[in-house]
Design goal:
Layout: H1 2-15, E1 27-43, E2 59-74, E3 83-97, E4 105-117, E5 122-134, E6 139-150, E7 156-163
Antiparallel strand pairs: 1-2, 2-3, 3-4, 4-5, 5-6, 6-7
Length: 164
Amino acid sequence: MRYMIIGCLLSFLLMVPATAAAEGAGATADTQTFHNFTQTYHAGVDPGSFPLPCGIGTAVVTVIFNGVLHVTTLTSGQGAGTSWATGTMTGAMTVAPDNTAIPTYSGQFTEWFGDNNNLQNGTEAFTGSIRLSGSDGSMLTVHGVEQTTTTPTGITISISKLSC
């Protein structure tokens, strides 16, 4: 799920120009808010996507969501190149598995991500929750947390936890 939402956000950022400038010298800040943004993709089939977890596998996924993205970058001075990004999204999701023996699911999702980088290290973090009702009356609840840190020496430390 994370890759689908991140892919959606990246494509959105490329389509919509930045609208805000930071107050103060040596920094830029861009904030985008969006409403009823819709994306449909085939999880595990479309390039760059992965089969869904929790026994779903390949499926057609549609999301309609609202959110806000914010990026701040230092552009001059000692910290030039340091950046922070964060985003929060929430909305409706439907999942139609390719395997017709698995019910179709619909419900809500919420996620947050953060990215912090300076000239020596960086940290990326993500948390997301999905609560869907199945066409057979079942419930599917998914929660994911990920964090990756790269140290000044280039060592990468990652943690990832997914629960269904």
